[in-house]
Amino acid sequence: MFNPFKNRQIPLSGPAFDITPVTPDDGADLPAVSVALYVETGGTLAFVTAKGALRSLSVRDFSILPVGVSRVMQTGTTAAGIHALMVQ
Q1: What contacts 9, CB < 8 A, 6 or more positions away?
Q2: What is the pLDDT of residues 33-45, one digit of tens each?
Q3: Phi and psi at residue 42, in whole multiples of 5°?
Q4: Where do the structural domains in the chain lie, given as residue ranges?
Q5: Do 69 and 20 meet the contact criterion of CB atoms below 8 Å apart?
Q6: Sheet (strand 54-59) strand order
Q7: Global pTM value
Q8: How far separated are the first and last CA of the chain, in Å rounded?
Q9: For residue range 16-32, what is the model confidence (pLDDT) as tens digits?
Q10: 3 state SS of 39
Q11: Torsion of CA 54, 56, 60, 62, to 10 degrees
């Protein structure tokens, strides 16, 4: 099967190579920094940016948040169905 991603450089402009479900956790980082988050059920989303800043935002259902995220916090997060878009 042809794989258009096989020899592709990793651009941050997309598309992502994979998407993985996220369980919010105050003590554990994502396996790699994501390039965006997808949220199925809106609410408050507390997270740590790729730069290390703690942020909290209100998001709507089916939102895409195009920001590098290293951790999604359990404390302060009410949004659900969170997925990380990954480039590696």
Answers
A1: none
A2: 998 999 999 999 9
A3: -65, 165
A4: 18-86
A5: no
A6: 54-59, 43-49, 69-72
A7: 0.84
A8: 20
A9: 788 999 999 999 999 99
A10: strand
A11: 20
